[in-house]
Specification:
The complex is a heterodimer. By secondary structure, chain A is an alpha/beta fold. Chain A has two domains: about 5-10 and about 260-394, Aspartate Aminotransferase, domain 1, CATH 3.90.1150; about 15-255, Aspartate Aminotransferase, domain 2. Helices cover about 45% and strands about 15% of the residues of chain A. Chain A contains twelve helices and 14 strands. Chain A has helices spanning about 15-25, 35-55, 70-80, 100-110, 130-135, 155-165, 185-190, 245-285, 310-320, 340-345, 350, 365-394; strands spanning about 5, 65, 90-95, 115-120, 140-145, 170-175, 200-205, 215-220, 290, 300-305, 325, 330, 335, 355-360. Chain A has a seven-stranded mixed beta sheet, sandwiched between helices. A three-stranded antiparallel beta sheet of chain A has the order 9-10-14. Chain A has a two-stranded parallel sheet with strand order 1-11. In chain A, strand 3 (about 90-95), helix 4 and strand 4 form a beta-alpha-beta unit. In chain A, helix 3 (about 70-80) runs parallel beside helix 4 (about 100-110). In chain A, about 55% of the residues are buried. The model of chain A has no long low-confidence stretch (mean pLDDT about 95). By secondary structure, chain B is α+β, with helices and mostly antiparallel strands. Chain B has three domains: about 5-175, Rossmann fold; about 210-270, SH3 type barrels (Roll), CATH 2.30.30; about 270-355, Translation factors (Elongation Factor Tu (Ef-tu), domain 3). Chain B is built from seven helices and 19 strands. In chain B, a hairpin with a 7-residue loop joins strand 13 (about 290-300) and strand 14. Chain B is globular and about 65 Å long. The N and C termini of chain B lie far apart (about 55 Å). In chain B, about 40% of the residues are buried. Classes of the chains: A alpha/beta, B alpha+beta. The interface of A and B includes residues 317, 319, 385, 386 and 389 of A.
Chain lengths: ~400, ~350
């Protein structure tokens, strides 16, 4: 039996996305070509852009298709940095951001002498709006997650955007893990902003909502003009040169539309499954701790700390039983690192190695929760015994 | 699965034998490179990918397990401190003792597996008095020496599918025939954590290099060196002595004294070693029943075994070869054999020269 509880890593392709891709792939022509075939492909592409803009709350011209979340984040942060207001040199960076953000900012720090203004997280993983606002004045840009991809905690995106607008600082929001699961509304979140300040860019990714891997988008406000990373044919406001992927865009738009349409009912369904899962884990392993915010969290996210037990070992033992879970953290050559997010919650490195992220999604049903709860006791007992012996030896 | 041909074929044979096999690649360095460079090293991302692709080919699950901390503490730190103490360690042996058949085996047993299967060339024989470790049938590839540290408990959970293969060429041919892409990958034969192969430069960075004196056997200063750790017993090159020996013969390192940072040199004859002994010993299976017995002893991975008499007394193993060894460094491991069977091993703490120093 295969049980998939890693939807936050990637979620199965939606049938409507596959159908849209296959249909669009029949169209022969580069969307930039002038002939009839090119025009047909362009129609597919711009239809997709409009549909995606509609569910993101932005104008179609503000949707820039990219290869995925990482490229979107890079374009936003590096692009806004290179287009920063004169005299600014700092980036406001909350702890516990995704590695696409952390490593991009680290690169700018090393190569461009960007100053980093860190914003601590609350013990539940939330960005404190006041602490965030305090780091904004005079900053070149700010960035923040809408929902933490590991512990699932939701931030108050409208408040963060309002603070950036008030401070006159350009803001990038990483909505890769949030889009399709919680409301995302670029236009409303940007409302208070003036010119290239406030919410300027927002990253989303296709495969996190049931679209294909290899396509994402960066919403770029019509008032912002980040510097491009890729130069060439000048497509997409010259922000992202390169032949545009009409079929990928069509599939992404189809998946996003469906995800957003189902969002409210799925949120209830997944939260119910998730709460049963968490309650079941606590009944079986009384010292397990749900990390993140108990209420303000992604509906499908259960992030559990198993004190004294290696998350990697648990993952391995569960995988042997056909149950796919994650430690949530980045891998270095196949080895999970201790989670920087868990440490940003004020937890120890030992704790940061003792977590599992269970993420439920579209295909998750009661039987998956039952299978996980059935496999957990033996896996936990074995991993706990192994951990205890390892501590004795050291 | 290192990413090399031996462990890939060993895994394939374990699968063929009907075992439930899981491929594990050991991450032994957190600073491993990305791409493989010749025959050096084994912990690059590319090596891990080679191992993964072999596992894919065999249809078995594959994981990377991180033993980098234990490797750093038990193998790399030991290597440095042994050199600092003037001894010549064998880190591959330490890795087998502390990592592959200890940390890895312990973890495997704890997670519900029965044995660790590796691509080592050695043979296991289940005799009436328990499991025995024997040489491989391919003498050129035999790795029983570096496995001499394994104890009965470890041997009980070990599986070497390549031990009975008459030659490495056959293993490569088998890999080719199985469609394993690593079939022609070069053997690794350097110390894996010293990727450029420059052991002396690597040690100099870590233990520091301080100028010291080179003495002859009478204690007379005949030159200087740039750090005693760079020398090992039996070494001839790199002494850079301006003055020739009075007899005109080449001089060799006879002894390294880390505390005084001095190196003692002398003629080749003075390397002859009549006796070696040590207190750190293990038995590979049942321990010898007698306190004194004849055996063959091997003091390096690629040395020939020589006939010897071993005596166990007062917690010390002492071995006297019938003909003297030439150039034995404290820190080396002596593995004792009875024919093809590995009896056990000890780390050499003391050596006794066959040629007394001139007074």
């Amino acid at each position: 039996m295969n049980v998939y509880l890693d939807h936050a890593a990637t979620t199965p392709l939606r049938p409507e996305a596959r159908d849209a891709w296959l249909q669009a792939s029949e169209t022969v022509g580069n969307p930039s070509s002038i002939h009839g075939g090119g025009q047909a492909a362009r129609r597919v592409l711009e239809d997709a852009r409009e549909r995606l803009a509609a569910v993101l709350g932005c104008d179609p011209i503000e949707v820039v298709f990219t290869s995925g979340g990482t490229e979107s984040v890079n374009l936003a942060i590096k692009g806004l940095w290179w287009a920063r207001p004169a005299g600014t040199d700092a980036i406001a960076l909350p702890d516990g951001e995704h590695h696409a953000t952390l490593d991009t900012v680290a690169w700018l720090h090393t190569h461009e002498h960007a100053a980093v203004r860190a914003v601590a997280l609350s013990p539940t993983g939330r960005i404190d709006e006041a602490a965030f606002a305090a780091e904004l004045p005079g900053a070149a840009l700010a960035t923040a997650l809408v929902a933490n991809n590991e512990v699932g905690t939701l931030n108050d995106a409208p408040a963060l955007a309002a603070a950036a607008a008030a401070a006159g600082v350009p803001l990038h929001l990483d909505a890769v893990g949030a889009f399709g699961h919680v409301p995302v509304d670029f236009g409303r979140w940007r409302a208070a902003a003036d010119g290239a300040t406030g919410l300027c860019a927002l990253s989303v990714s296709g495969h996190k909502v049931g679209g294909p891997v290899g396509i994402g988008a960066l919403v770029v406000s019509r008032h912002a003009n980040p510097t491009a990373l890729l130069h060439g044919g000048g497509q997409q406001r010259a922000l992202r040169s390169g032949t545009q992927d009409a079929a990928g865009a069509a599939a992404f738009a189809a998946a996003a539309e469906r995800a957003v349409a189902e969002r409210e009912s799925e949120a209830v369904r997944l939260a119910t499954l998730r709460d049963r899962l968490v309650a079941g884990v606590r009944a079986l392993v009384p010292d397990a701790v749900l990390l993140g915010d108990p209420e303000h969290r992604l509906p499908g996210n259960a992030h559990l700390l198993f004190p004294g037990v290696s998350g990697e070992t648990l993952l391995f033992l569960l995988d042997q039983r056909g149950i796919a879970v994650s430690t949530g953290s980045a891998c270095q050559a196949g080895v999970p690192e201790p989670s920087h997010v868990v440490m940003a919650l004020g937890r120890s490195e030992d704790d940061a190695r003792s977590v599992l992220r269970l993420s439920l999604g579209r295909t998750t049903v009661d039987a998956d929760v039952d299978a996980f709860l059935a496999a957990l006791p033996e896996a936990h007992a074995r991993a706990a015994a192994s951990g205890a012996r390892a501590r004795e030896r050291s | 699965m290192s990413g090399g041909v031996d462990s890939a074929v060993a895994a394939a044979r374990a699968v063929d034998a009907g075992h439930e096999v899981v491929g594990v690649h050991l991450a032994l360095s957190r600073a491993g490179g990305t791409l493989r460079a010749g025959s050096r090293g084994c912990c690059t991302v590319e090596d891990a990918l080679d191992a993964r692709r072999a596992a894919d080919r065999l249809g078995i699950p594959f994981y990377v397990w991180d033993f980098s901390e234990r490797f750093r503490d038990d193998v790399v730190a030991d290597f440095i401190s042994e050199y600092q103490a003037g001894r010549t360690p064998n880190p591959c042996m330490r890795c087998n003792e502390k990592i592959k058949f200890a940390a890895l085996l312990e973890r495997a047993l704890e997670l519900g597996f029965d044995a660790v299967c590796t691509g080592h060339y050695a043979t296991l024989v289940d005799g009436e008095q328990g499991r025995e470790l024997h040489r491989a049938s391919d003498a050129a590839k035999d790795q029983s020496y570096v496995l001499g540290v394994l104890t009965a408990e470890q041997l009980a959970h070990t599986y070497f599918p390549l031990g009975a293969t008459p030659s490495k060429a056959l293993v490569r041919a088998e890999a080719e025939q199985r469609g394993l892409t690593v079939a022609q990958k070069p053997d690794s034969h350097d110390i894996c954590f010293i990727p450029d192969g420059d052991t002396r430069g690597w040690l100099a960075e870590r233990v520091g290099a301080e100028q010291g004196e080179i003495l002859d056997r009478s204690g007379a200063v005949i030159g200087t060196h740039e750090g005693a750790h760079a020398f090992t017993v039996g070494q001839r090159r790199g002494l850079q002595l301006g003055v020739p020996a009075s007899d005109g013969k080449p001089r060799f390192v006879l002894e390294v004294r880390p505390v005084s940072n001095t190196v003692v040199v002398g003629p080749k004859e003075a390397l002859a070693t009549a006796e070696i002994s040590g207190e750190r010993f293990t038995w590979a299976g049942r321990a010898p029943q007698a306190d004194a017995f004849d055996c063959d002893v091997q003091i390096r991975a690629h040395a020939d075994p020589v006939p010897a008499r071993a005596v166990i007394a007062g917690g010390v193993v002492t071995v006297r070869p019938h003909e003297p060894f030439e150039g034995v460094a404290p820190g080396q491991t002596a593995v004792l054999y009875d024919g093809t069977r590995v009896l056990g091993q000890f780390t050499i703490d003391r050596t006794v020269s066959a040629v007394p120093a001139p007074v």
